[in-house]
Amino acid sequence: MRKASSSGRADPAVMRCVSESMRGHGVARPLMRSTTTTVSIAHSTRHASPTVRAAVYGAVAGAAFGIVGVLLDATSRTVQQLGWQSLQRPAGWAPLLGLALVGTVAVIVTQVSFQLGPLGASFPANEVAAPVVAVALGAMVLHEKVPVSPAAVTAYAACLLSVLAATIWLARAWSGPENHPAQ
Description:
The chain is mostly helical and 183 residues long. The protein has helices at residues 12-22, 28-43, 50-82, 90-116, 119-141, 150-173.
């Protein structure tokens, strides 16, 4: 994390990130694109089976929680660099407002995903999507360092594939008619 300079002034890089987010660049634009994309994906499954819909909505909710993680980091950086008084200006409360809105949507979509189909489809998809989105957006938007050596990328891919395989297995195992209440 960056520290405030010895003069007590905020780091210029943080000031630039905060001011750009208010102009629609920096943090806000990629987060809006991510949110729009995930909502579009969820909407496109309206005619799919309950298992597929639950998995997709679970993944969308997980993606929203990943976005919440990035907004939480942006908010905490703002407060760390500029102090609590930064929340008195629009540049300071924009990430906080985004955090509240996206967090609320994430919780609602999670609950919807639980109602659409089997928990074995929605919950694992939620758990897979959240860290993937948080790491990707953290690297792209907040310039976090992610190890990208061949061994690290191979390990990431192996872990992701095993979690995806387990998610698919759980969704299939829980998609039988005996696991759904009569409607």
